[in-house]
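Hello forum,

I keep getting stuck at the same step: I have a sequence, I want structure tokens, and every attempt I make locally crashes halfway through. Rather than fight my setup again tonight, could one of you with a working pipeline run this one for me? It's a single chain of 280 residues.
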Amino acid sequence: DVTKSPGWASVVLRLGLLCLIPIFGVVVMYGYLFSWARDIAWNVHRPLPRKIFANEDGSLYKRGFFIFVVALVFSLVPELVNLFIGMSAGFSFGGTALYGSYVPAIFGSMIWLAGNSASVALSFLAALFFWVGAMRVSLYGTLSSGFQVQKIWAMMKHDFIGLLRIVGMAILIAVAMVLALFFALICGGLIWLMSSGSSTSMVAAALIVLLSAAFLALLLFAYVLQNALVFRALGYWIRQFDVSLWNGQDDPMPFERNDMQYSNNVSAYQGFAAQCAPTS
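Reply #2:
Ran it on my machine without issues. Output:
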């Protein structure tokens, strides 16, 4: 979907450069990409819009800002847990110096190891909650729909394997970005070593500046491309929930209504069977 869009590389690069503007750039990127993900959730196939600020439905900035807030809140939860764990471990290590005993240090190490493991798992869940919550915001157009944890969790449980596939795609792109960073650093170091102490040092410095600028553009390009792929995949993932049958954000979703109907049918059958059962 991304690469078949006309001028997709230019759109992705412009979005990446726009992200250099604090907050505003990310808000526009979220509003633009989640609008595109919203289309495919409604089963509307169209390429990436050529104009970033077109704002065709009039909700570009509102949608982007709401999703930015959802991302900020869900990202703060693991950080607060890390802060609490660090303070608890610090008090334990401080007890070692105060009382001269290794027991508090051992206890602090256990807290630190267990806390880090829990923090990694919490960060993973926070990312998933943000993804699904952001899609709900893009579809309902309300900020509160992105924080309906019970609804989000029900959707995640309905097709967790599909979300894991999207996670795998995001990890592959992140690995590619790290490799590109490593390659750029090696190239910059080689250029500097080959030209140090010579008359071409100024030329090498200019080359390094150009290489750094090109790498920054490449990094921003890869960042937006990763988001475009992930958010578009989320749109496909949401499409299975029959968006056209959704009601209010607090109402049961189609799969929940089907489960409730199935449960009612089973209960009615069990009650009928109990009435027809022979009595001793």
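The radius of gyration is 26 Å. If your local run keeps crashing, start a new thread with the error log.
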